[in-house]
Task: inverse folding
């Protein structure tokens, strides 16, 4: 397990980074196939190595450095190597990213730009920095670092500038819609002007293009409008094959799933602020809508036979969704067919038995062990049940401290607990990985029209309907 | 370009080194006892006499946001200082306890974060054997909401009013900002035929009591009585029979 690595091999190939990437596509896409072990290695704080240096508590206002500034006392942002400021796992081996256990925020920022850092750390940093700083502040600090490093003509300094620039591009590439405001755009454009002034036209043009692309692609994804008249007269869901219906449901889900930005998941776990999480909210709404729609479709027909037909149809669709790995729609339909108002009615033996068999996936025992196992065993593409991702992130958030406990780190209170971020990263990375896959079905508006925009009754209305079909019995007369 | 490939190779190897494929076996090897109770699907007939050690009591936290459900859960799970809490692990919401001299486990569901997935809520409630209905003594709205939460539970449980619920007034340490009096809360609990406990997740006051009180009640219902249609909660297959009997009575 102890592979010794010369730190220079971690050098991010800057030229490739900048020039060989299709624009708008986020850069590194390395696969960290198993983060479980990584997490394990973060678990115990008993064996850590404390920082050799401590940062001044006071933060100076950030301005671009002047040339004369060189030689003056350095801030952490201006160090070539910040390893000494970090809390590491106490081990002999060369620095491995999971050994970053914590540190002052600025040192963690700089370490993400360091050649001696690693891609894995960089990914974890870029996925989670929003839990301890804003994109606005991060860009301010990174541009400061770039300008400082670019002032000196020393190779080490020049290299640090290039690496910092590549991280700036990453951050800009992955900005969220809600983060793009005047102040943030001003930081980037000011930096672009600065690059132009220094004669760095190529970098200036590149960054400007990336920013514009990001701004243009940042509209919130909405469910497309569907025209009912595509459906032939008298045509209903029952006229289509369950497998094709499942495919179309999956296409709709996929669009919304792809639109979720990982940062929204983090923000949701922290504050449940709907304004900052528009795509996540839309995805959750779709889950509920689909579930209430299924209840409505099953309960609405006057004839028992007809209701049973829909019940059986949805059982089949549900099984297809499971086969497709669309856990979102699968659970939406399952939760509908297994909901109070639906399950209390009499259904055929087949449907009842199959429902019972499938319903175990919603069992919360052992931290949803059954569901988690099923998800792990499903080959992509697949769409996960995001509700559980939110629960996991929420508990990582409330169950772990933001800063390392002072008593463990010589009374310092400014050392961020990066172990918490490794955990958040592991969860987000599993989502990011799934987002890279796509289902390749073709959209069929005729079937989508049969979903009737998922128009449905309210929960109370479905109960009323259910009790009209089969009156409620009093239990304790 | 060549530099890039060598860099990539090294990174790939190094990532492999980091991530040995142990995840699945890890998932399966842990908590095998849990697995066996779960695959039994609640059918107690498989273990002839209910073995207390294998008994898992399923408890669900309900209540408005911000009242302290997650804080109480974590406080109970980890009364000592925890360095790292990993909620994705199978044992992260489960605790072995000794209840009146007998070993058993408690499995707590706090759906923190998934509250907006309202469509699946009832399915969770149905699997709950006991409920901790939390409000904050400093927040009148959260107290009002407890009635709604109980109604939702009862609806799912087919109006079985004997389902174990404990009413919990949390944030007891904030006595100065109290807006719900002890008498008010006790009156409601009486109305529900339930216990009322005042807690503080901050000072750990009464936290254990809430969970133990509830477990005791769950256990009494599970093993204390021979299942019969009048006292047995409706679970699984027994439901329909129970309903039919009730029907003939009316
Ligand atoms: N003073 C005090 N604060 C509490 C107590 N329990 C929870 N809190 C705080 O209340 C807030 C919400 O708690 P949380 O457990 O997330 O509530 P939940 O939304 O019901 O899960 C957090 O800031 C907690 O620190 C308590 O007993 N006393
Ligand atoms: Mg909570």
Result:
């Amino acid at each position: 397990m102890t592979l010794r690595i010369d730190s220079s091999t971690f050098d991010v190939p800057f030229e490739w980074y900048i020039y060989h990437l299709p624009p708008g596509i986020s850069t590194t896409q390395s696969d960290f196939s198993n983060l479980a072990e990584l997490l394990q290695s973060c678990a115990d704080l008993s064996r850590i190595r404390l920082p050799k240096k401590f940062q001044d508590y006071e933060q100076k206002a950030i301005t671009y450095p002047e040339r004369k500034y060189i030689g003056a006392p350095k801030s952490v942002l201006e160090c070539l190597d910040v390893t000494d400021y970090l809390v590491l796992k106490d081990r002999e081996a060369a620095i491995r990213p999971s050994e970053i256990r914590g540190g002052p925020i600025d040192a963690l920022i700089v370490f993400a730009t360091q050649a001696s850092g690693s891609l894995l750390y960089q990914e974890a940093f870029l996925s989670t920095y929003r839990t301890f700083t804003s994109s606005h502040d991060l860009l301010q600090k990174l541009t400061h670092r770039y300008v400082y490093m670019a002032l000196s003509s020393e190779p080490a300094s020049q290299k640090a500038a290039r690496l910092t620039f590549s991280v700036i591009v990453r951050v800009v590439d992955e900005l969220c819609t809600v983060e793009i405001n005047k102040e943030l755009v001003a930081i980037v454009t000011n930096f672009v002007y600065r690059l132009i002034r220094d004669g760095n036209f190529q970098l200036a043009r590149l960054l400007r293009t990336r920013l514009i692309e990001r701004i243009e692609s940042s509209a919130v994804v909405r469910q497309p409008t569907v025209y009912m008249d595509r459906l032939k007269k008298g045509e209903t869901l029952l006229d289509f094959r369950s497998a094709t219906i499942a495919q179309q449901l999956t296409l709709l889900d996929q669009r919304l799933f792809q639109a979720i930005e990982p940062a929204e998941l983090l923000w949701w776990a922290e504050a449940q602020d709907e304004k900052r999480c528009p795509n996540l909210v839309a995805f959750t709404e779709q889950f509920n809508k689909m579930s209430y729609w299924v209840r409505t479709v099953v309960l609405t027909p006057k004839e028992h036979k007809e209701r049973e037909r829909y019940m059986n149809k949805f059982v089949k669709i549900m099984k297809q969704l499971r086969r497709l790995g669309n856990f979102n729609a699968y659970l939406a339909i399952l939760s509908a067919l297994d909901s109070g108002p639906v399950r209390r009615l009499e259904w055929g033996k087949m449907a009842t038995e199959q429902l019972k068999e499938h319903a175990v996936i919603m069992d919360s025992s052992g931290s949803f062990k059954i569901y988690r196992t099923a998800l792990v065993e499903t080959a992509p593409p697949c769409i996960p049940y995001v509700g559980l991702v939110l629960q996991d992130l929420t508990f990582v958030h409330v169950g772990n401290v933001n800063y390392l406990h002072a008593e463990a780190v010589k009374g310092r209170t400014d050392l961020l607990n990066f172990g918490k971020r490794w955990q958040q990263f592991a969860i987000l990375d599993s989502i990011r990985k799934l987002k890279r896959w796509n289902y390749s079905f073709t959209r069929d508006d005729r079937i989508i029209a049969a979903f009737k925009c998922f128009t449905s009754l309210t929960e109370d209305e479905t109960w009323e309907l259910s009790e009209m079909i089969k009156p409620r019995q009093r239990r304790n007369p | 370009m060549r530099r890039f490939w060598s860099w990539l190779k090294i990174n790939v190897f190094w990532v492999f080194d980091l991530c040995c494929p142990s995840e699945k076996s890890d998932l399966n090897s842990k908590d095998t006892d849990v697995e066996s109770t779960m695959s039994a699907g609640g059918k107690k007939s498989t273990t002839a006499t209910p073995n207390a050690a294998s008994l898992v009591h399923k408890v669900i936290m309900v209540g408005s946001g911000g009242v302290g459900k997650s804080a109480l859960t974590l406080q109970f799970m980890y009364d000592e200082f925890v360095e790292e809490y990993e909620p994705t692990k199978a044992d992260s919401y489960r605790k072995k306890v000794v209840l009146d001299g007998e070993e058993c486990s408690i499995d707590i569901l706090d759906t923190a974060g998934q509250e907006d997935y309202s469509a699946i809520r009832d399915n969770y409630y149905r699997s709950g054997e006991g409920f901790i209905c939390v409000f904050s003594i400093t927040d009148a709205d959260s107290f009002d909401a407890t009635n709604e939460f109980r109604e939702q539970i009862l609806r799912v449980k087919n109006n079985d009013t004997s389902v174990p619920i404990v009413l919990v007034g949390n944030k007891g340490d904030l006595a100065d900002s109290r807006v719900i009096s002890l008498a008010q809360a006790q009156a409601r609990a009486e109305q529900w035929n339930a216990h009322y406990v005042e807690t503080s997740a901050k000072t750990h006051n009464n936290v254990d009591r809430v969970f133990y009180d509830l477990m005791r009640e769950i256990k009494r219902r599970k093993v204390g009585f021979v299942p019969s249609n009048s006292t047995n909660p409706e679970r699984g297959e027994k439901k329909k029979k129970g309903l039919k009997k009730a029907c003939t009575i009316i």
